[in-house]
Write a structure and sequence with these properties.
217 residues, mainly alpha, 80% helix, elongated, ArtM/GltK/GlnP/TcyL/YhdX-like, transmembrane, transmembrane helix, MetI-like_sf, cell membrane
Length: 217
């Protein structure tokens, strides 16, 4: 089977489980990051300075400190909230919160694409600032930001191996376990790399498709 040793073949289900954990972690963290990113972007665009300050502080904190430190902080804080012993929860929260700061900046940069006339029209219709954001501004920003957001989620995928430090058996950690047992690092790491490509290639293809579509438009 592609020149794989018997020990590595026997470990394929273990690697498959690690791949599944990576997919789950990536999807959940990406969903959290897109939700947080929209909220933080909205806060940064508010006129009231406390909201703006909070949004900017969040972005600065998440972007200015190592993701692995954030993961440890979340992991050791959860037991104080009665949620200890859940490495997947800690990893989703930490990675999603970290990525959310970058998503917020992507959206904030692209918010200038929404013209002043559209904002004024929304206010003329009696929409509040919150409703204007969610029904007029936000959908347009998301559409314009799709290629950059998909790139961000690709980076998020490559951040998931950090979850191994809190004992979540994602793909990289599963590979390390198999290597320790089989002493066949080359074959195992090639399979691990193939697993990440299996997840990343659809995202990369989506970016190229969206960029090509925008050029045609």
């Amino acid at each position: 089977m592609l020149g794989l040793s018997e020990q590595v073949i026997a470990a394929l289900p273990e690697l498959g489980h690690g791949l599944l954990m990576t997919v789950i972690l990536t999807v959940l963290a990406a969903l959290l990051s897109i939700v947080l990113g929209q909220i933080v972007c909205f806060l940064q665009l508010r006129r009231a300075w406390p909201w703006r300050a909070f949004g900017r502080l969040y972005v600065s904190l998440m972007r200015g400190t190592p993701a692995i430190v954030q993961l440890f902080v979340v992991f050791f804080t959860l037991p104080r909230l009665g949620l200890g012993g859940h490495p997947m929860l800690a990893a989703v929260l930490a990675i999603g919160m970290n990525s959310g700061a970058y998503v917020a900046e992507i959206l904030r940069v692209n918010q200038s694409l929404v013209t002043k006339g559209q904002r004024e029209a929304a206010r003329t219709l009696g929409l509040s600032r919150w409703l204007t954001w969610w029904f007029v501004i936000n959908p347009q920003i998301l559409r314009a930001s799709l290629p950059m957001l998909v790139n961000e989620f690709t980076i998020l995928l490559k951040t998931t191996p950090l979850a191994s430090v809190v004992a979540l058996t994602e793909l990289t950690y599963a590979g390390q376990i198999v290597i320790a047992r089989t002493y066949d690092a080359t074959q195992v790491l090639l399979l691990v790399s193939a697993g990440y490509l299996l997840i990343a290639l659809p995202l990369i293809g989506a970016v190229r498709h969206l960029e090509a579509k925008r050029r045609v438009a």
